[in-house]
Design goal:
This protein is α/β, with parallel strands linked by helices. It folds into two domains: 5-182 and 365-382, Rossmann fold (3-Layer(aba) Sandwich); 193-361, 3-Layer(aba) Sandwich (Rossmann fold). It has helices spanning 18-33, 45-49, 78-96, 134-149, 159-168, 193-200, 218-227, 230-235, 246-258, 273-282, 297-304, 317-321, 333-345, 347-361, 366-382, and strands at residues 5-9, 38-44, 62-68, 100-103, 115-120, 153-156, 176-178, 204-209, 236-241, 265-269, 285-288, 309-312, 325-328. The longest helix is centred in the first third of the chain and has 19 residues, at 78-96. The protein is globular and about 65 Å long. The protein starts with a strand and ends with a helix. The model has no long low-confidence stretch (mean pLDDT 92).
């Protein structure tokens, strides 16, 4: 097949959330694995002109384009800047004669390339009014429908996401492929109990890593942990890593106070990956009881660090956890408490789960994701 010219929305890599992690790792893996096709990375103009875009500068089949202006600090000009960005995008796409443009974050979707591919991470905003206002959900549904109709191909990050997408938008079925995420190379078994005890005052503990928001079900996790026996809580603390603001953080603190959990729960805030890796590796178990996920990257990170997981039995999480995880109803406080108790007290049960962690984790990789993504590019071009 003739070499393709592929475009990426490189601004998606700036995000600190899950979409940013996905974009950075997938683009990196694709560029590292492919020297045949040409790539144009559409970036923020200020990053381009300040010389910040150096990572792939020496790679002959990669170029950067100063396409987008940032609205940071000038929000009042956002509508005008969006108009300018769209015009700039369309100019560069035509100038570069892009065959396939891959939007790794649908928030940046725009038409203009010969073929568009978009990654859909999840449709959580369409499912529960407590997560998204009704007006926002209706706007989101219209936006997703428009994106689907304007895309030659869709990548779903889990089988659950594909099924959910097809259920709400049946026309997406024939153009949607599942390409699982991978795990960054800086997550591996790195247990350092001395470091953890010295820095975080933690000896034995169960761990949560992720955003602190209603969808992540932190309140039920804390309530279930409160039901674990005092003896176990004294020996196995609950460590929580992640950022939260405003009302929900207040609610978390109120729940901790109500159940008198302050001596046993450590809210550590946001931490660098090196610390998170050591926390994963040294934990007894990782707990992730989210009501809804498109993939669930922290679960894979924990498995890659050799630590068994307790996960919600909903959405994509059973796919990621596999046989190295214990599935539980995220609304069953008693059920969650029993699983926490079992994974702490039953050493044989724990050992079986631990032996499966790396086997399950190694089913996922960014190299595999890159190979399958490249195959998707070829597929949409061959379809004419």
């Amino acid at each position: 097949m003739q070499a393709m010219k592929i475009g990426f929305d490189y601004i998606a890599t700036v995000s600190k959330g899950g979409n940013g992690v996905y974009s950075r790792n997938l683009i990196e893996a694709v560029l590292n694995s492919d020297r045949q096709n040409e790539y144009c990375l559409y970036a923020y103009a200020h990053d381009f002109f300040l010389g910040r875009l150096k990572k792939h500068k020496q790679q002959k089949n990669v170029c950067y384009r100063p396409v987008y202006l940032s609205t940071m600090g000038i929000r009042f000009l956002a509508p005008m800047i969006r108009f300018i960005n769209l015009a700039s995008f369309k100019f560069w796409v035509r100038f570069d004669r892009i065959d396939v443009f891959h939007f790794t974050n649908p928030a940046y979707f725009a038409t203009g390339a010969r073929k568009n591919i978009v990654t859909i991470h999840d449709l959580s905003g369409l499912h529960d009014s407590s997560w998204t206002k009704k007006e926002s959900a209706e706007f989101l549904k219209k936006s997703v429908k428009k994106i689907i109709n304007s895309s030659a191909g869709i990548i779903a990050v889990s089988n659950y996401t594909k099924l959910d997408l097809v259920k709400i938008f049946p026309s997406s079925e024939c153009k949607t492929s599942v390409v699982y995420e991978g795990c960054a190379k800086n997550f591996y078994v790195d247990a350092d109990r001395y470091y953890i005890e010295e820095k975080f005052k933690l000896k034995d503990y169960v761990l949560y890593v992720g955003q602190l928001q209603p969808r992540k079900n932190i309140i039920n996790m804390l309530t279930a942990y409160a039901k674990v026996s005092l003896c176990l809580k004294q020996k196995y603390n609950l460590a929580i890593v992640g950022g939260a603001r405003g009302h929900y953080l207040e609610k978390i603190n109120q729940t901790i106070d109500f159940h008198k959990l302050s001596p046993y729960v450590k809210v550590l805030g946001r931490l660098p990956d090196d610390d998170i890796r050591k926390l994963y590796s040294s934990a007894r178990a990782f707990i992730f009881l989210s009501f809804f996920e498109g993939f669930g990257l922290p679960v894979l990170e924990s498995l890659k660090c050799g630590t068994p997981v307790i996960v919600s039995n909903r959405s994509s999480l059973p796919e990621v956890a596999g046989s190295a995880g214990v599935l539980v109803d995220p609304e069953s406080i008693d059920g969650i408490a029993k699983v926490i108790d079992k994974i702490i007290t039953d050493d044989n049960f724990y050992s079986i789960l631990k032996s499966r962690c790396l086997i399950q984790a190694n089913k996922f990789s960014w190299e595999k994701a890159a190979k399958e993504t490249l195959a998707k590019y070829e597929e949409v071009l061959m379809c004419g």
